[in-house]
Amino acid sequence: MPLNNRIVLLLLTAALLLPAAHAGAIFTPTPSTISGAPGDTVGWGFTISNDTNYLLITSADFTPATPLGTFTDFIGQFNFIVVGPSPESTSVSQTFDPSALTGVGSFLISSSATPGSVITGLLTLTYDLFSVSPNDPNFDPDTDTISNGNVLTSAAEVDVKGVSVVPEPASFGLVGLALLLGSAAQKIRKP
């Protein structure tokens, strides 16, 4: 057998022996690009679809880590999201709500982030897969676990917008005073 054919056969055999990724699951952050000013907390909602077995989200992360902001996992820490066939739903969606702690997670834009910066990264959801829904009263993680530590990823961005500066009412008085003093100074200089 030629060497190329042996390499292809070896790769196919290895692929069959490795645990297969769960191909039926789809993760879509909503929206994929979020924006806010320095100091703002923004975040992503999501839709997850899965029609084979039962997918349980265990954590979320935004990578790479950046000094321009901090990600906080909502979906894994504060929610119990199971996606799968009946009796569950094959598609689950949530909007981002920082008060209700819903969505994938929040991103606190650093107060020192420069307006116009774009923080590009990857949202990664980690999940476990089960043959029986974790919500089923007969669920047994010892016998119903198919795989642990699976991942779903999607590209994501944070656009840092500029802060619109609106003068405070007291500033108007200072500007008026400066104009008045400037005008008075010009009158004094005239012979």
Mean pLDDT: 83
CA-based gyration radius: 27 Å
Output the structural class. Answer: alpha+beta
Q: What count of helical segments does DSSP give? A: 3
* Name given to the CATH architecture: Sandwich
The general outline is elongated
Return the CATH class: Mainly Beta
- How many domain regions? 1
At the fourth level of CATH, the homologous superfamily is Immunoglobulins
Give the N-to-C terminal Cα separation: 107 Å
Q: pLDDT below 50 for ≥5 consecutive residues: which ranges? A: 3-22
Specify the biggest β-sheet: 5 strands, antiparallel
What is the assembly state of the chains in this entry? Answer: single chain
User: What is the CATH topology assignment?
Assistant: Immunoglobulin-like
Description:
It is elongated and about 55 Å long. Mean pLDDT is 83; it is low at 3-22. The chain has 3 helices and 10 strands, in the order αβββββββββαβα. It is 21% helix and 38% strand. It has one domain: Immunoglobulin-like. The chain has helices spanning 3-17, 141-144, 169-189, and strands at 26-30, 33-36, 41-49, 54-63, 69-73, 82-83, 91-94, 105-109, 118-130, 145-160. It is of the alpha+beta class and 191 residues long. The relative contact order is 0.20.
